Amino acid sequence: MSGTPDGTGSAADSIRPAMTQRHPAAPATTATPDRAENHDDHRADHRADHRADYRAAFNAAHLPMAVVDRTGHISGANQALAALLGAEPHVLAGQSAAELVDLASEARTWHAYQEVLRGRQARLRCTRRLKHPDGHSLWTEITLGPVPGTDTGDVLLSVADISDRRDLQARLRHLQMHDPVTRLPNRALFFERLSAALEASSYGQSGTGRIGLCYLDLDGFKAVNDTLGHRVGDRLLTAVAQRLTQCADQSGYGRTGGHLVARLGGDEFALLVEDSTGTEQLADLARSVLAAVQEPFDLAGQRLSVSASIGVVERAAAGTSATGLMQAADTTLYWAKADGKARWTLFDPERNAHRMTRQALSSTLRPAVERGEFTVEYQPLVDLESGAVRGVEALVRWNHPQFGTLTPNRFIAIAEEDGSIVQLGRWVLRTACRQARRWQIEQPSDSPVFVSVNVAVRQVWDSDLVGDVAEILAETGLAPQLLQLELTESAVMGSAGRPLQALQALSDMGVRIAIDDFGTGYSNLAYLSRLPVSVLKLDGSFVRGFRYEEGSHPNPADETIVEAMVQLAHRLGLTVTAECVETAGQAARLRRVGCDTGQGWLYSRAVAPDVIAGIISRQAAEAAAGTGPGRPEGPAPHPQL
């Protein structure tokens, strides 16, 4: 069946029954010309009545509507639209629909509107803010679609007032995006606006293209809640919010129509500075905020004084993400807290890089032991009288795949913090003992070289150090007398309970105990008499005082102090090792005051095991020939080193 788009067709186009011999066509079944004309007239009258009914409904409708032709001009408007736009229907006829309801202000909407007029798109719906004749603005929803029941290509435009719905949505959004206590923007709204501020389109030719952030946290706020209650705590937060807002308003950093201050949660606040002019501007804001918060608060009879810590970040907006900016601010706030609180701290890229490196090391330290990324090097301990190597200190190195070879000062503190020092320390102890036993087997001697291994106090507390040492000595076959364990002075002094018991058990086993970096902590020689200690290692700061150039005079106080410490140690039955020996002059003075052994770059840096094996072999050959090192006037570095 063919016909108009709505499915109606003419009588001439209707289907006729087929004619057969059994059912010949009767004259009555064929329409005469007069009857066909009457039928067409009836259908035309019906369509006219339909159009009249449609027009009556169109004019009486409360919904503002208009018919728009293919060119985009209004061919007819109802009274509701005329009242909405403040003009009579006949005045609206012929005017551009796009201009009346603002369809051309947005490129995407304008394109969709053109597609509807061309019949390539069925419908368009958009939201527009229109001006009412009485002067107030209202939000409307514009809908365009084909006029029902026609094939003219005309479009029906309707305008629905959604102002009440928009107002309700705005109120709900305000409640959703603002903190109920302080009435400030909350975390969600702050991040929404921060992200918008970082978009490149937000910065025109007049902007600086930079952004700043002050991230603030109240010091000791938890104590206020715990002692005075959450009601007083909420009042304090509200008062702080008011002062922060005043600081922002007085500084004039906020953009028109936007909030600069937000409460991110708990006692954390953020102040955003768009189009900042540099770090000095942010520093000024941080100073004013810090001073404002430190002024006492009067809260319903309660007078409170608080302080704040502030992390300050200022940088170019290009290439900066909201997450990255907040991470930098959070890190800087942590620095302000760690540096003593009640202060502001500016973001330092170098300090942050160190922190990131530390974090990277911390996350990979444990598996690095299993992957075999660690090696052990050895630094000789030289007899100051004879110049012979008596022992070696085992020093661990981390061959990091990203950062290269790392010395202990880069990762030992991290290992102690996260507890991986127990696993790492056990590996170093086993490796050093195995190596010392190998030297002993390869170069038998009446005075084999001992190995000294550093032990962290956490190894004593978090593991069975005595059991580990006994197991490793039995496994490697190393005599206990050839193992020396070094603990720092602060770890040993004041030891009681388990640490003292462990030290005593190790000493009873035959293992030597040495106090490392002696002279930097308690330096209580009387207490040493009650500890199972056999060696003192003088801190390098004492030895550095012995260093002087040709023609200058040594400081007699340094020599007097070291000499007194050596004599007292000897009277307690302890031997003394001097660290950081770098010159022959230092070695001569240390030998003169009675120091037993020396360790430092004068003799050797930490080296691989095969280099130490060469030293042991040479000493054995010299001993066999009766040409040992003797007592040199000023020990020189070993030629192999």
Write a brief structural summary.
The protein has 23 helices and 21 strands. By secondary structure, the chain is of the alpha/beta class. The strands form four sheets. It has an eight-stranded mixed beta barrel with strand order 13-14-16-17-18-19-20-21, surrounded by six helices. A five-stranded antiparallel sheet has the order 2-1-5-4-3, with helices on both faces.
Kindly describe this structure:
The chain is of the alpha/beta class and 641 residues long. The chain is built from 23 helices and 21 strands. The strands form 4 sheets. Strands 13-14-16-17-18-19-20-21 form an 8-stranded mixed β-barrel, surrounded by 6 helices. A 5-stranded antiparallel beta sheet has the order 2-1-5-4-3, sandwiched between helices. The chain has a 5-stranded mixed beta sheet with strand order 7-8-6-11-12, sandwiched between helices. A hairpin with a 5-residue loop joins strand 1 (65-68) and strand 2 (74-77). The relative contact order is 0.05. Residues 1-32, 254-258 and 630-641 have low confidence and may be disordered.
Topology:
Layout lengths: L32 H28 L4 E4 L5 E4 L1 H7 L3 H4 L4 H4 L6 H11 L6 E8 L5 E10 L8 E7 L1 H15 L9 H12 L11 E10 L1 H8 L1 H22 L9 E5 L2 E7 L4 H16 L2 E3 L2 E3 L2 E10 L5 H17 L5 E3 L2 H23 L2 E10 L5 E12 L3 E3 L1 H11 L2 H22 L7 E5 L2 H6 L2 H12 L6 E6 H4 L5 H12 L2 E7 L6 H4 L6 E4 L1 H5 L11 H16 L3 E4 L5 H9 L4 E2 L10 H17 L16
Parallel strand pairs: 11-12, 14-16, 16-17, 17-18, 18-19, 19-20, 20-21
Antiparallel strand pairs: 1-2, 1-5, 3-4, 4-5, 6-8, 6-11, 7-8, 9-10, 13-14, 13-21, 14-15
Helix pairs in contact: 8-9, 9-10, 12-13, 14-16, 16-18
